[in-house]
Amino acid sequence: MSTEQILGLVTGIFFGFLLQKGRVLRYDKQVGAMLFKDMTIFKFMLSAIIVGMFGILAMHDMGLIKLSHKAMNVGAILVGGSLFGIGWAVMGFCPGTSVGAIGEGRWHAVFGAIGMIVGAGVYAELFPFFKSTVLSWADFGKIGLPEVLGINHWVIAVIFTIITLIMFRWFEKKGI
After folding, report:
1. What is the 3-state secondary structure (H, E, C) of the chain?
2. CA nearest 15: which of 77, 100, 101, 126?
3. At what angle are helices 153-174 and 40-61 packed, to 10 degrees?
4. What pLDDT, on the 0 to 100 scale, is given for residue 106?
5. Are 140 and 72 in contact (CB under 8 A)?
6. 10 Å Cβ neighbour count for 26?
7. Between vectors from CA 71 to CA 66 and to CA 72, what angle results, nearest 5°?
8. Any signal peptide, and if so, which residues (predicted)?
9. Distance CA 102, CA 10 (A)
10. What does the alpha-carbon distance between residue 44 and residue 39 come to, in Å, rounded to a whole number?
11. What percent of the chain has pLDDT over 90?
12. CA 84, CA 115: separation in Å to the nearest integer?
């Protein structure tokens, strides 16, 4: 195994541990999130996004990593987001929590993992078709919010964090 693979494995295990400790692998938390009655998963995800965002931006500014945007493609977002949402609603797990649930010994989540693998394989086989259809719908290229707005990425990071903290406070006041 390469160093990158070992670091990926260690990071994945640590993330799975945090998912389990944050109780976001629980079915009742998943359903509560879909019904907007329990914001535990949203708080967990937004916290992870903020930590990751600041870490990635800091490493980018130090020259340790190079950012490479994926293309902003409306067709891919609509179709991919719909499939993601349908899968989450049917299984009661998103991809990360599905694998975490398997780690907890909930074997019914294996079907979700198999679905992810089969779906990735089908996508790879049908990629030429998708490239000429869905992936050609409103393709804006490799853009990011800082480029669109013409402002520094740290401004967006701080504004996003402030909005998230306000939402967290509102969630707590509502008891969700």
Report:
1. CCHHHHHHHHHHHHHHHHHHHCCCCCHHHHHHHHCCCCCHHHHHHHHHHHHHHHHHHHHHHCCCCCCCCCCCEHHHHHHHHHHHHHHHHHHCCCHHHHHHHHHCCCHHHHHHHHHHHHHHHHHHHHHHHHHHCHHHCCECCCCCHHHHHCCCHHHHHHHHHHHHHHHHHHHHHHCC
2. 100
3. 160
4. 86
5. yes
6. 19
7. 120
8. none
9. 17
10. 8
11. 30
12. 11
Chain-centroid distance, C-alpha 67: 17
Q: What is the pLDDT of the chain when averaged over all its residues?
A: 88
pTM score of the predicted model: 0.76
Q: What is the pLDDT of residue 27?
A: 81
Kindly state the average pLDDT of the residues 22-26. 85
The amino acid present at 48, given as its one-letter code, is A
Tokens of 165: 């903290």
pLDDT of amino acid 89: 83
Whether 103 and 20 have beta carbons less than 8 Å apart is answered as yes
